[in-house]
Amino acid sequence: MVARKKHYRPPGKKKEGNAARYVTRSQAIKQLQVTLGFFRRLSILKGIFPREPKKKFKGNNHTYYHVKDVAFLQHEPLLDKFRDIRAYQKKIKKAEAKKNADLATLLRTREPTYKLDRLVRERYPKFVDALRDLDDCLTMVHLFAALPAVERAKIDVELIHNCRRLSHEWQAYVSRTYKLRKVFISVKGIYYQAEIEGQKITWLTPHAMQQVLPDDVNFSVMLTFLEFYETLLGFVNFRLYHSINVKYPPILDPQLEALASDLYALSRYIVSNSRTSTLEPEAASSSTSQQLEAQEKEMQADESELRLAQLQHQLPSNEPGALMHLMENAECEHEDDQDTKECRRLFKNMKFFLGREVPRESMLFVIPAFGGVVSWDGEAAPYKESDQSITHQIVDRPTQGHKYLSREYVQPQWIYDCINARIILPTEAYMVGRIPPPHLSPFVDNDAEGYIPDYAETIKRLQAAAKNEVLPMPGVGKEDLDDPQNLLVEGYISRAEANEAVKTKKKMATLEKQYHEELQRELQGAVMKKSKQGSEEDAKASEESVPDPKQIAEDIDTMSKLGMSRKKRGLLEAIEKRKERNTARISKLKERKKKLKSSEN
Amino acid sequence: MGASKKESVEVDKKKKNSKKNQPPKKEKHDTEESVLAQKLEDTATDYKELSADDDSEDYKSVGESEAGDGESSGDEGIHNTGSSEGLAIDGHSEDSEPDQGAEESDSSEDEVAPRNTVGDVPLEWYRDEKHIGYDIAGKKIKKKERQDKLDSFLANIDDSKNWRKIYDDYNDEEVELTKEETKLVRRMLKGKAPHADFDPYVPYVDWFKWEDAKHPLSNAPEPKSRFIPSKWEAKKVLGLVRAIRKGYIKFDKPKEEPRFYMLWGDDASSSEKTGHLSYIPAPKPNLPGHEESYNPSLEYIPTQEEINSYQLMDEEDRPKFIPKRFTSLRSIPAYENAVKDSFERCLDLYLCPRIRKKRINIDPESLKPKLPSRKDLRPYPATCYLEYRGHTDAVMSISTEASGQWIASGSSDGTVRLWEVETCRCIKVWEFGEIVQYVAWNPLPELPILAVTVGQDVFLLNSGLGNEEIQRKVKELLQVETPTAPVDSGNKVSGWSWLQDDEHEGIRLRHFKAVYSVEWHRKGDYFSTVMPAGDSKAILIHQLSKKFTQRHPFKLHGLPVSAVFHPTRSIFFVSTKKNVRVYDLLKQKLIKKLETGLREVSSISIHPAGDNVIVGSRDGKLCWFDMDLSSKPYKVLKCHPKDITNVAFHRSYPLFASCSDDCTAYVFHGTVYSDLNQNPLIVPLEILRGHAISNGRGVLDCKFHPRQPWLFTAGADSLIKLYCH
After folding, report:
1. Are A563 and B683 in contact (CB < 8 Å)?
2. What is the ipTM of this complex?
3. Which of A91, A115, A186 best probes binding to B when mutated, by most B CB atoms within 10 angstroms?
4. A127–B288: do the CB atoms touch at under 8 Å?
5. Contact residues, chain B, for A213 at CB < 8 Å
6. Domain limits of chain A?
7. By C-alpha distance, which of A417, A419, A424, A412 is closest to A358?
């Protein structure tokens, strides 16, 4: 028997409905007369994505594109350009196969290129649109900035340098204009959130470690994305720099760039003196290549700072004190929202010094973004460790040998927690050698979540206290008295002593907790007894007369569901399921917490 | 090779020239001096030839010089024209060769400018003139004053150096040879090489490659290609010219355009519509929660047991991220999935279909349909008021009497009981000893007859209610006349027989298969029985007054479940497991087929107005059919998790109920409007509980009170309950 077609359509009749409006991917490829790789590349660059037809006429395991989308691709000039390029590559190949090296080199010199700026404009007609979609772009560029160059995956050095440059430019802008809002150190990397033109832009930078390149990743797809992202970020940076009257791209001598730390000192010097002279490349030219190599590492960390200095430097330079002028200007700018002002003031009048082991790149980005001044343990640092005006030294090591009395020694997490809380937190919990308090995500709305971690509550109290301009809670104040941190500051005190102090404090705290718990238990017990009696009575009553109200409510619920359409019922069930899952999660957390507490006691 | 051949061609031409020149030369110079000069010249050229480049022609001339005869002047001419190096060495010799001056003037006389510029003309032309020619500035060179022959002779005799003096006719002067020159001359006179350092006996190097050639030279005619310009080269040049013209080869570097510029100028101006499909931005990746922190609160970290339990989970359910805790920032390792995560995001971006979904915070309450409040729909049965205890096993079926004063119940303990509704008193008990499947009261109040199905039999029992007249009438009816016996025997093939049952004081209607249910016609005379295993005779219609039985004349498609009469008209509903068929009994034809779409229909009930039907099924679904509307259910209510055992309409109130094996009975409000355009209103009112499960069965039957909004339910726990409003 001949298999009958599922939907018979008389010959000559046009398709209708979804079948006319959508095509599968293989159909689209056939229509465009391209290979799958081409199609993929084109759709990535054009931002064409599959759409979901209401009825999947070819089955579930097909990807459907809208015919208009396909037509959009078909009219893309880039398609022809790609074809040209491919034909050209064939020419080169042919020349090479015929051992016509001259022709091959001649052809290589004039390879056709293409530009993506039109596509950027087409996809993001407004600047805000581009900002809205910038998350993935930034994450990817920052990731590639941390990747090693691999020939096998066609990740060349130039690409990585470009990514690094773009990311530093972006960071310099964010830092310079105090747009950074939230920072979160996760296991995956460091999340930053900035707010630009009302758009919240979140991106992830990997930790500064050697990244592993997995084998099961199709790099050509990623590189196509990156190609577009690079262009996009370039234009976005241009626009942003333009908005603060700074020339883009920042003109940096490549040698100077390599010698970033030297340049940092130089530009700082220039800025602090008169800001009239221009950059002097000869300063760098004297350096040898060995130095270059040595300082290559330095460069990564310092570049953002360098850019910052550069930004300051490139201000209208005919006027002495341009930087100051700008600062005044900025202060005059009332368009700055409250948030920005707050952020700018957070680390004002604070001087930081980074230890060698601290992730410098992140710190150099973050601290200036909140109005702080920062230096590091390195050759070209703006000020040395011995500077007396340093207020905080950021240290991430088990013990700190020599200590200055005039400054506080804190772990890097303190900076991030301060930023997220928007207040200067007490430092005693972040002292050297201690396990810092939990680092909480600033992206979670604790109240909506239904579960508030302990530390979030303490931070909340501190925030409230800071707002009211009153000293922290009495309990906290008391703690401050026997705070080992204070003792440390006051005089030399051995580590053992400090530990002892900590232990006694802990003991006290646990005792206090026990007492509180007992109290609570007593209270609860009383209530429980009462409620038990009550419930028994209730039970009796219910047995006698009315079924318990729970049952009634349930009945009403089920009955109301009876009349619903299937779709709505499904929706409702999904909502209920989600709620249930949430509550289960929270209850689990609470249970764990209880267990932990009991094990502590 | 081509070039050298050309040279040789030129050389040949010059050879001819020099041959032309030479004969007059010899005639002219008869004097000693001229002979000497000639000799000098010859040897000089010989020498030069030897010192010239080692071409293939060299060995020939070397051989000649060895032979030592100076006559072969033709060859010498060649070599003179070839190059001037030899002349440069003996600086003066050029002066002594006036005949060749013209020829050589262009090439070899750069260092010493010739004084006379007349060229190669016979000097006798100037014999009578006062000058011998012109210098380079064009001025006449005067002849020297002629000495007397005698004087000169005397002077020559006196002069010891006279022998080395030579008169240069051309320039009209005497040249004195130096010692070196004389040495050269002497060596040449001896037939030796002029230069002392020259070794004529160097070992011979055979530069010629003797590849199949007998002779070093070929006398093949010169190929044409040597005479005409190369086509290939011309082509190449042409190609280059063309490439330049077309701009393939560019000499000026392309101007560097700035890579980035102000792409978004004014946002206000760029609000043009693309005319394309709307862009759906990809959802942003989820923001990290507390648990992703490098140092989360301790309660976020799962215990080891929990982590182990993840391994047992299905891969899809397994949490993708397990929180970890690092006590300091420096101890965080690199995240191994960084690239992979990014790649997966890329895949999501270009491969995932996107839909614009409105994610409003939906209040779950808003999803529930707006229904009239239950209070307005009262009265309806809500609470259990009475229980009828007495059966010892599951109550299979109950039936209410038309007046509403009595109910009858059949149980699997083999008894049928008659209860008074208000007092819960059991009035009467019939014992059958077999499971009572079904009981049904005659709908007429004046005929209190009870139909009971037990196994293969249907009993028509006299309930013993009512006054004497009624009793008499009933007893009359329940008398089976003997004449029907032969009819019975005749019908034995079809397998039913009307028998008098004395034990129960009624009629025993014997069937050939187990009877499942019995339903009365509204007028109380006819009743139908269903034998699911009875094939074509599964449904029988009996007439009580005539004790007559007939087969349902239509073919059944599937197993019959129940057969019901229409409450007002002569329409008959037969439900099989899948469908409900509606027949007109008067016209004897199928009116309608209701497609339930259910897996297994268990019960059916007709709305008292007759246009709506509810069907209960074993998959817990209740279908409401509007007969006027469609053959598909108007509404399907999935209310019970287990089988629906029975459904029932109230005769007067807009109520209907369903009972199920999950021990519940649902009461619904179901208003049917007389306006055909308005759909029936169905509102669930109450869930009635109270029965207990026994042997996996719950509530087995439910019936409404004929007058009051009360519901009787029969449970497998041997109880009958009355729910009142």
Report:
1. yes
2. 0.77
3. A186
4. no
5. 339
6. 18-75, 80-114, 120-280+295-313, 336-493, 556-601
7. A412
Distance CA B80, CA B93 (A): 12
Nearest to B263 among A68, A121, A455 (CB): A121
Closest approach of B309 to chain A, Cα-based (Å): 15
- Say if residues B287 and A191 touch (Cβ distance below 8 Å): yes
The amino acid sitting at B439 is V
Q: Please give the torsion angle defined by the CA atoms of residues A70, A72, A73 and A79, in that order, rounded to the nearest 10 degrees.
A: 150
Enumerate residues 6+ apart whose C-beta is below 8 A from B530: B515, B516, B517, B518, B538, B539, B560, B561, B562, B563
SS3 A24: strand
Q: In degrees, to the nearest 5, what angle opens at C-alpha B711 toward C-alphas B706 and B715?
A: 130
pLDDT, tens digit (0-9, with 9 covering 90-100), for B153-170:
888 888 888 888 888 888
What percentage of chain A has pLDDT greater than the value 70? Answer: 72
Integer angstrom CA distances of residue B550 from A488, B453, B537, B538, B539: 109, 18, 9, 11, 9
Does A97 touch chain B if contact means CB atoms closer than 8 Å? no
Find the Cα–Cα–Cα–Cα dihedral A175, A179, A185, A191, rounded to 10°: -110
Under an 8 A CB cutoff, do B263 and A207 touch? Answer: no
Count CA atoms within 13 Å of residue A313 on its CB side.
Answer: 25
CATH number belonging to the domain at A336-493, selected among 3.30.430.20, 3.40.50.10190, 3.30.200.20, 3.60.10.10 = 3.40.50.10190
Using a CB–CB cutoff of 8 Å, tell me whether A413 touches chain B.
yes
Chain B residues within 8 A of A593 when measuring between CB atoms: 298-299
Q: Which residues of B touch A143 (CB under 8 A)?
A: 338-339, 342
Q: What is the dihedral of CA B38, B41, B43, B46, to 10 degrees?
A: -130
pLDDT in tens, A272-298: 333 333 333 333 333 333 333 334 444
Q: Give dist(CA B572, CA A230) in Å, integer.
A: 78
Give the start-to-end residue ranges of the domains of chain B: 2-189, 378-724
Contact check, Cβ <8 Å, B289/A443:
yes
CATH 2.60.40.1120, applies to B378-724:
no
pLDDT digits (tens, 9 = 90+) for A352-393: 998 888 888 888 889 888 988 888 887 667 788 888 889 999
In this predicted structure, what is the pLDDT of residue B25? 41
Q: Which of A562, A578, A590 to mutate to test the interface with B (most CBs of B within 10 A)?
A: A562
Determine the residue among B339, B341, B361, B634 to mutate to test chain A binding: the one whose Cβ has the most chain A Cβ atoms within 10 Å. Answer: B339
